[in-house]
Each structure stands twice: as C-alpha cells, then as structure tokens.
Amino acid sequence: MFTIAPVHAALCSRVFRTFCSTYIWHFAIFDENHRVPTLLNQYTAAPRRFSVRGSLLSVVLACTLPAVAVVVGLLYVSFDTKRTLLESHTSSLAREAMARLERDLAIIEAALRLLATSSALQDGDMRRFQRQAEDALPSGIVLNYVLTDRSGQQLVNTLVSSGRPLPSQGTPPALQEVFEQRATVLTDLFRGPVTGKPTIAMGVPVVKAGEVVYSLNVGMQPQRIDVTLRSLDLPPGWLVAVIDRSGTIVGRSRDSEQFVGQPAVPELAAALRRSPEGLLRARTKEGDLAITAHITSARWGWSVAVGAPEAQLHATLVRQMRWAAIGVLLALVFGVGLAWRLSRRILVSVQQLNEQAEAIVDGRVAPVPALQMAEAHGVSVVMQRAAAAMDHAVFQAQHDPLTGLGNRAYLEAQAPRMLSLARRLGLPSAVVMLDLDGFKAVNDRHGHAAGDRVLQAAAQRILGEVREEDVAVRLGGDEFCVVLSNADEPAAMLTAMRIIHALSQPYGNMDERIGCSAGVALLEADKPNLLAAIEGADKALYVAKLGGKGRVELHRPQVGGRWSG
Length: 565
Fold this sequence. Notes:
Layout lengths: L4 H24 L9 H6 L8 H64 L3 H5 L2 H11 L7 E5 L5 E4 L19 H5 L3 E2 L3 E2 L6 E11 L2 E10 L1 H9 L8 E5 L5 E4 L3 H4 L6 H9 L2 E7 L5 E8 L6 E7 H52 L15 H21 L10 H18 L3 E9 L1 H8 L1 H18 L5 E6 L2 E7 L3 H15 L11 E9 L6 H17 L5 E4 L10
Parallel strand pairs: 15-16
Antiparallel strand pairs: 1-2, 1-6, 3-5, 4-5, 5-6, 7-8, 7-11, 9-10, 10-11, 12-14, 12-15, 13-14
Helix pairs in contact: 1-3, 1-10, 3-10, 3-11, 13-14, 14-15
C-alpha cells in the first residue's frame, strides 16, 4: 500500500537536519569574540541561510501536490471502474432481455406449429379450422391467426367472421419465405391490412403430402413486446428497446406509443450492421447520451439495445470532484496554518541548538531538544480504502456472481502461474471440461431460478471433488472447466469420473435427471499449452456427449484412443 506519511516525514527530517547542521556548524567555527580563525576560513565558505517559514511552506506544497495527484488518480480509477461495471451491467441486461424475448417467441412458435397439425387443415375444412383457431387464440398474447396460400391470399383470418370477404393484399412479403425455406419466419413491423395498426407476424409452414401448402401466421401487436420489456428490473432512467431487421423500433420500455415504428438512431443502426453484439456511446431518441449495449438474435435477426444514461455517471464524478476539491482546499489551509505554527516551534528549537552549541564551545554538556512533527494519516486511510475497493472490483471482474467460482478471466490469470510452477517442477497437469446433461429441462419446466440453484449446487459439488491447488471456473451456462495440477492421465480421468458421479446425484425433489459429461486433455510438462488443452478437452467433451452422455472422454492429440466410464 502506497502512503504519503513516510514522504512527509522524510522531507521534514531533511529540512530540519539541514537547519540543525547549519547552526551547529556556525557556532562551532566561531570563537567567543565572533572571530573566524584564519585556518578554518581558508577551507570553509559562508553557510547557506534558509527561511524556516518558507521551507515549511515548501514542504507543505511538496506534500500536498502529490496528494492532489493521488486524489485525481483515484477519481480517474474510480470513474473508470464505475464505467466498466456500468458497461458490464448494460450487457448483462441486454442478454437477459434477449433471452426473455426469444423465450416468448419460442412459446408462440410452438403454439403455431401445434395448430399447423390440425386435421381440419389436412382435410381443407376452412370453417372448422377457423373455429379451432378462434378457440386456440390466447387472450392478450397474440392478435389473430391468418392462413395464407402460396400466392399470399388470405384463406382464414380470425379477425374476420367466417364467410365475409378477406383482404386480398397486405400480407407481408417476408412470409413468402415460409414456402421457400420451409421454416418459421418472423416479419419486421408492418401495418395490418384489417386493423390498420402496426403489427408483427410469425409464420410456420403447413405441410401436406410432403409439400408446403399453407402458411399459418399469427399477428402480434408491439404492446406485447413492451410487456416483456417492462418486466425487466431496470434501474431508474435506463431504457431498453427491441429493433427488427430493418432497423425499426418494435418495442420500447418507455414512451413506446411515441417511438414504435420509428427507425433506430443512426449510431445504433450502424452498430447493429457492424456487429451482432457490442457497446457504444449514442444518443437516445429523446437526445440523451447513453452507454448502450446491443445484441442481435441469431435465430430471429431482431436486436435488443439497453441504454444507461451517461449523465448519472458524470453526476457521480462531479460530486466526487467537488468533495475532493473541498478536501484539498481544507488540507491547504490546515497545512499553511500548521506550517506557521511549526515554524515558531522550529525557531525555538534552533535557539535551543544555538545554546547547545555555545555550551559545547564552553565545554558544557546540554541535551539536544527533540523536534516533533505530525504525519498525514488521512491520505493513508484514503489509499487503503481505495486499494480495498480495487481489490473488490478485481474480485468481481474475475468471479461468477451466481456460483462464486472464477470465470474465464480468473482462469486466464491463475492457470498460467499454476502451469509455470508445474513446468519448473516437471509435474503433469490436465484440463477437465464439464457440461451438465439435462439442464435445459430444468429451466424449461421450473424456470431460471431453479436452474440457478442447480448451477450453484453443481459448483459446490465440483469444489468438493477437487483440491485447493486446482482451478475450477464456470465458463458460462452449464459449462465448467477444472485445471488439475500434479495430475497424470489416471488421476485426471478418476477425478473427472468423481465429478460426474457427484453432479449426477439428485438435486432436491426435481423429477428431471441431471447428469454430466466430461472431456479431459493432458498438458505437456515441459511446455504446457493451456489454450490447446482447453480446445482438446472441449473436443473430448463433444465426443462424450455424442457417445451417450454421463461419461468422460480423453483427448489424444497424436495417438488415437478413447476411455469412457
């Protein structure tokens, strides 16, 4: 821990030693009649004289200016840390919003595909199918069901009573891809031909005799997306929006009625074209600067953007700078006053040194007066708190907040040191990649909270099966990685089997059976390559998954072979 107090003491001590030595030397070379002996005068120069008050004021400035630099540095580090945490939070919220959006769309797609298997469609009985579609219409989730043929002509529309004429145009051209690609299609925002309001449609193919004969579509209003966005736990002032493939806003957590249907701001639109995921500094539709994280769905092509107002971050910095300026000003006033008081004490001490020098010239013994100085303990306390805050920030950046395990950054920081020690000692090492089997069913049936509890329990079970010197991390989702020190092939395989056994035990009263598959890769003792070992273990994990799960596979980069439990 860096501290200012020793610098204060060292500078003060040097000044006082200079004063003392100057005065003592002055009285030592003069006799009682204040005459300078000729011999001494040939080898000595006139002593340099200092102003006590001026010197102490210089000490105050020399001690205060570094403290100001440290405070400025701390403010910069604090601001940079807060900005990093803010960016991380916006990215996490963007991923969470995208996950909820994809979940809702997946539910709608599943309902559509189920309805597409209706026997009425296979028989061509459109009246019966319309009644089935109207009965299956979920309240508040979707607007209507529409059945179209390859030409785009509507055959059934639950918004139009059976027997009444249906719109001959207005079907989004994008739904034609249902026939061409035989896959689910999600359109961009368009104006519905019946309601005349902004609408989103999803279409699935209806297959008859191996051919796509119809497109079964569902219409949704943007308000449905707004409900999903408002369910997010957003901090005050934050904003989340959903943008379709054309760059049009289709959902917004704030003022959606005003901005849905408008194009995204140019900076965000350009960022979405450049990369499927990223961070940028852009203005919102209201004109406010925001730190924005965006992510694009690989499945649907839609994007989610989360914006954190930059003004909140700047307000924190201004508040900190104001208090820092007040603190620095008070420190200067206190320092100058203290220097003025100390100068009087030093003058008294110097006078005592003069008396001592005279006593020495006279052959008398006189005690040397002690000079006392105060140290700047406050700066040391500030530095200690700053270091503790930085340690905490580093810990958060290198650990998974859900399980408490290290993350990929922790692995990249810790594993090289462990492998370097293993290389010097000539000890073998191994990498074990782990992936839970059946974990998706837990999230699907019991929700993400239950899945989080399973991940937390799995992390504790992994820690119970490895040693303290091993490195266990969560790479993401239900994937874990363990770097084993001093572990050859049998030991690594045995440890992997123990972990599989531990992770395959029941998790509370859940009916789902959760297991684990593992891949093992060995590291060469003389030149361990962690990245290559992780890739090899990941390949072995893939083989274990394909081989029936609940097993461990060993990656052999040169000699083929496989071991399974």
